[in-house]
Amino acid sequence: MRFPTKQEAALKNEVSILQNLHHPGVVNLERMFETPERIFVVMEKLKGDMLEMILSSEQGRLCERITRFIVTQILVALKHLHSKVCTSKKREEGRDRKKEEEGEERVRFP
Q1: Among 37, 65, 67, which residue's Cα sits nearest to residue 54?
Q2: What angle do CA 75, 78, 81 make, to 5 degrees?
Q3: pTM of the predicted structure, to 2 decimals
Q4: 5-96 belongs to which CATH class?
């Protein structure tokens, strides 16, 4: 079963962002393909299992040093992702303004 139209458009927008994003802290998008009934998004296979590592530790949680390292890595990846998305949106807004000036209709995606 496919997504409703709005969700499908949002998914395709995220896929287009991920296709141009390469960062060690972000899972790579391998490819996306569609059938009449479904949309498939193939992501990079990761090594290791964070949940298994946490649950197998003595206290069922990570020590502060490892937690700080992981959170820092997540924040660095989020900062990179945010900068790419903001740059992409600014370019899109610039194209929209140019089209408006040329008299073309403005179409926005969520």
Answers
A1: 67
A2: 155
A3: 0.58
A4: alpha beta
